[in-house]
Amino acid sequence: MDLTNKPTGLYVYELYDSNGIVVIAGESPNVLETIDTSSLGEGIYFLHFYENGTLTIKQVVIDHQ
After folding, report:
1. Residue 32 banded pLDDT, cuts 50, 70, 90
2. 6-15, long-range: CB within 8 Å, 24+ apart, which pairs?
């Protein structure tokens, strides 16, 4: 999974499973961050992405096919 954003500030991300449990979390000053999802089961997840105090939530489908 790649996250592409504006190149300013610190980016904080949390990936939640369908039960609301954080399965991956991290932060990065980079424009592009690659998150390894190979250890996760297939299904629907929710990416919480914080940029300068603003929260954006995206639905993510993980399919290892």
Report:
1. low
2. 6/31, 6/51, 7/31, 9/51, 9/52, 11/49, 11/50, 11/51, 12/49, 12/50, 13/47, 13/48, 13/49, 13/50, 14/47, 14/48, 15/40, 15/45, 15/46, 15/47, 15/48, 15/60
Could you tell me the pTM of the whole model? Answer: 0.79
Q: Which domains does the chain have, with CATH numbers?
A: 2-62 (2.60.40)
